[in-house]
Amino acid sequence: MRLLVLLLSIAMPIVAWMSQRGEFGPDQGTVSDRYPTLLVAAGYAFSIWGLIFALDIAYALWQATGDRRRDATLARIAPLAAAGFALTAVWMPLFSQGLFWLCVAVIFGALAATARAAVVLSRDPDSQPRQRLWAWLPLSLHAGWLSLAAFLNLAQTIVAYRLLPVDDMLGWSAVLYALAALVLLVLNGRMRGNLAYVAAAMWGLAAVVVKQSQSTVPGAQVAAGIALVIVVALLAQTLWLRWWRPRVAQAASH
């Protein structure tokens, strides 16, 4: 399983490179531009994949070598990491082919796998600094980005199949924003204020604010405001979990 994690971590950037070259059909940016939504982020935000892929490979190499091969926590999350990496790689050609419903299932599956791994690592009582650097950081970033990207993908699927009104998207887009906020806040709470997870999500949300602030799609300005509110809520929750709550608990114990 450790070797499979390594191979799949390498597969992700290879598939991404092939996808950008048009090997599977139109690249992701071209497909995305065909279906404008109120949840789409500015293009620069997707550069985070380069960092995520690099860190995932570093994690995969680290967990497959040395005494880490006998670590119980790393053994526990290995199937989750492998599933998350495999589904992330598969999603790219599916999106290029316009198989949107399948893409939604795949990306939410990737989110479930990587988020579960990040939760396990965040709550590991025996976590060491090296584990937080080499395992917790990569998988938390991956999960954080997918927590937002999954809902961006869902919004584009709704528009692609015209399942809901596309000339007035604000109502159902607000519902998707609320669901995304719920997922982000619940997972961040489970991870006790995961800074890497929150950073990836806030990077994407900030890019949504930028994109929607400049968009002429009806409701875009309101959508930008909603995304900004989620950023503030995530930041406030993280401060509470990591700073205020421990201080309150410490004060109450004296």
TrEMBL record:
The keyword Transcription does not apply. Keywords: Membrane, Transmembrane, Transmembrane helix. The chain crosses the membrane at residues 37-62, 74-92, 98-121, 133-163, 169-187, 194-210, 222-241. The keyword Metal-binding does not apply. This is Tryptophan-rich sensory protein. It comes from Lysobacter korlensis.
